[in-house]
Fold each of these.
Amino acid sequence: MRKDEGAATTSAELRAHNLARLLRAARGTATVLVRELAGRELIEELSSPAGARADVTVPRGRGRPTGVPSAHSRGPVALAIDLRDDSFTLAAFELTGRSAVLDRHEREAGSGTGMLADVAARLAIRRREFGDRVVGIGIAVPSPVRGGTMVQPTLPDWQGIDVTGLLTATATSPDGATAATGGCPVLVGNDATLAGLAEARRGVLRGYSVALHLHVATGIGGVLLAAGQPVAGAHGSAGEFGHMPLAGGHEPCRCGSTGCWELDAGARGLLRAAGLGEQGDRMLAATEVIAAAATDPGCGQALAKVAGALGRGIGALVNAQDPDVVGLSGLAAEVYQASPDAVQTAYLAGLMRFRRDAPPALLPSTLGDLGALTGASELVFDAFLTPRGLAAWRVAAQKTA
Ligand SMILES: [Zn+2]
């Protein structure tokens, strides 16, 4: 018996001693497990935390291990795509969430299907670069998704496109040869759902038991998260909050319904309120309207109108879902930060009276543009961090050894 254990007389002291004993045991076990993970090139112990490089594409120099586990320099990589109707971004993520944006492409005058071909071509190049480190490809798309297919995309020529099938065919054999990782999984999710998932895992919604996340771009999407998991619905397409009549309108919507919230509170609503057309980069134009709101009365009125519609809809959704907190990303965060009082006033007015004493806080995203990409990488690592995924990695690692 250690000398100090004899002094444990109260239950609090006994508890402290037991915790210390458990930690000593866990430390030994953890060291063994860390060594095994390092042997499988999943993690490695860095020479120092300050030695961590921000760029996943550059191998890090190795020094004397100090017991700080980090992503292995030859460890697993998730390739993530954020597909938008006017551009796409490709990034690489390591297990720790560290990322590097590798490609950003604007859509030229060409078609949406042409842009998907560009996506496939960039993916093939990056897959060759990272080789068998790639454990999966995650794609965030601006559409509700059923089984990998875009069922209501923002671009008409993406309607019904099976993104998983399209990219699996191209991505597994970029140059006609069999890729080292074999059937590298391609996972597709709705961009707003993935942005919410990312905020719950690594952003502003971390630690809340029930969170509502709203992502505003051309349209409005979102997700309800319970214990950090998206409530996806029976077919994976829940969270289409933009297609609810939350702002009192009556116009027909592109979705087939009428009076949809996104007609008033999305980028389209903001541009229409400012008297602008919908051609070109709508998100950029909407951001410009917000930036000009302080000096241009027309833009100021448009912002106030959209802020009111946004707040009113959030109030209705909080009445329905009873979340602890509401996360805002994309244009929702921009509108809120530019006009917090207008959003708050409409939000509180839309809440049922008993909720107004402690209204769930509105929290702008901390991940910003990386939200959907981060969520797409989480899909990949969720599939990878399973006995099956790890078993495939061991085979791949042995091949290169
Ligand atoms: Zn609609």
Amino acid sequence: MQTDTTYKINEIFETLQGEGSFTGQPSIFIRLQGCPVGCSWCDTKHTWNVSIEKEVEPQSIVTKKIENDSWGVFTIEQLKAVFLSEGYQAKHIVITGGEPCMYDLLPLCLEFERSGYSCQVETSGTFEIKVSDKCWVTVSPKVNMKGGYKVLKSALLRANEIKHPVATEQHIDDLKALIDEHKIVNKQIYIQPISQKKRATELAIQSCIDNNWRLSVQMHKYIGIE
Ligand code: SF4
């Protein structure tokens, strides 16, 4: 088992998953540093750059209480030690970012699955997805973003769920075009309002009803948890 792979990590915390199929599931979030996709409405812009001068000791990441662009390098063994020392009870791991698929996540998934955890990755679908077969893949396709990355067909096909952020009709059209272009069928599709604003939420609700999609409302933002 390859466990010497390292990951640049911005944040590790335990909470409830607030989005998609696993809403309400106690989860350990691992937020990886780095994302070149460039979504204008991104709510984790502090994860975009991997600035050398922002590297800190791993323990500073474990105790981090405020969002910032510092990151630390962790091996899988170090992550397991953190889970133990922090007393995390969740058995579901959410690997997010940033764009986690810039990393090879296969060793991480395999090692944690071997230890009794389930894994989920949240990705924009713009990088090849390197995870275990059992890993739950959430693709949140980012279309026509500033970074110029294309959503990969292979990512859409691998997705266990497609979770699409929407604020305007254009976002709905983008999703439909993507599904048509890549002939994506039989996928669980979630529509998620980009903000908690009334208009985005109403648009999301109506598009779910019209297309037999499901609504994801970022539960954590409504109940005030991380
Ligand atoms: S892909 Fe995710 S982390 Fe990257 S810019 Fe878009 S929303 Fe932010």
